[in-house]
Amino acid sequence: MASSLAPTPPVDEPIAGACIFQVLSAMALHDFSSQRLFVESSLSVGSAVACAGPQANYLLNVLRMSQGDRLLVFNGRDGEWQTEIASVRKRDCVLKAVEQVRPQLSGPDVDYLFAPLKHSRLDYMVQKATEMGVRRLRPVMTRRTIADRVNLERMRANAIEAAEQCGVLWVPDVEPPAKLDAVLQAWNPSRRLIVCDESADLTSPVAPLSALEPGPVAVLIGPEGGFDPCERAHVLAQPYVLAISLGPRIMRADTAAVAALALINATLGRGW
């Protein structure tokens, strides 16, 4: 069983007391009926965006779009843009940026640290963390980490797909895996580290989270089977750590990730 030990552009100013209702209200203004595509190209009025390979195949053969059709694109820097397919060839196409429909938002400054899981469960975790708006995905290797390899390209692809589907205007950075001890040794104490600990006080975590000073935060989810006792004690001894409980039940790591990040969004919501 998994222990519930638990996640650049400039960051917007924190919104004190932001709640899920505010986030959902903002998301309701997004256009979820149009196709969305993440691109690397810079976006401005009249700029051309070349699409080839898998992106062109997706637009032309899967969606069967053609010249003159419109879709939304974003690059994590220039906001969201309405674009039109300006030209089509057999294996590629060119999009033309018509107008900006949403300005760029940097999102909450939340790092998500996690002990990697295997295959589909890691895919799920990355997708949900992206939907929750994290800025960085940081795999950490613990003494009980099950997966000994991390496919960073697959993580990046899953993050892009999730961002395209859920209206997020940025794709989280994917950092290479690092040993937990090394991560803690290099930690910037100005970023509070929220650790979900099954032995923490079972009272509501909302009060201690709401009491945090505005600023960057991180969430740490432990491996399947929980941290090694010495490792766990070392984590909880750090002065920048806030240990909270996710309730009386032991959760799988991917479930704990969703629960913890939902709490962060509800109590420490940043500008979206």
Secondary-structure blueprint:
Elements: H1 20-27, E1 36-38, E2 48-52, H2 53-62, E3 70-74, E4 80-88, E5 92-102, E6 110-114, H3 119-131, E7 136-141, H4 152-166, E8 173-174, E9 178-179, H5 180-185, E10 192-196, H6 206-210, E11 217-221, H7 229-236, E12 241-244, H8 253-268
Parallel strand pairs: 1-3, 6-7, 6-11, 7-8, 7-9, 10-11, 10-12
Antiparallel strand pairs: 2-5, 3-4, 4-5
Helix pairs in contact: 3-4, 3-8
CATH topology-level fold name of the largest domain? Alpha/beta knot
The outline comes out as: elongated
CATH architecture of the largest domain: 3-Layer(aba) Sandwich
- Spatial separation of the terminal alpha carbons: 35 Å
The helix tally amounts to 8
Largest sheet: 7 strands, parallel
Low-confidence segments: 1-28
Structural class computed from helices and strand pairing: alpha/beta
> Could you state the CATH homologous superfamily of the largest domain?
SPOUT methyltransferase, trefoil knot domain
Portion in strands? 15-25%
Q: Tell me, what is the CATH class of the largest domain? A: Alpha Beta
* N-to-C series of helices and strands: HEEHEEEEHEHEEHEHEHEH
Q: Total number of β-strand segments?
A: 12
Radius of gyration: 20 Å
Mean pLDDT score: 84
Count of domain modules = 2
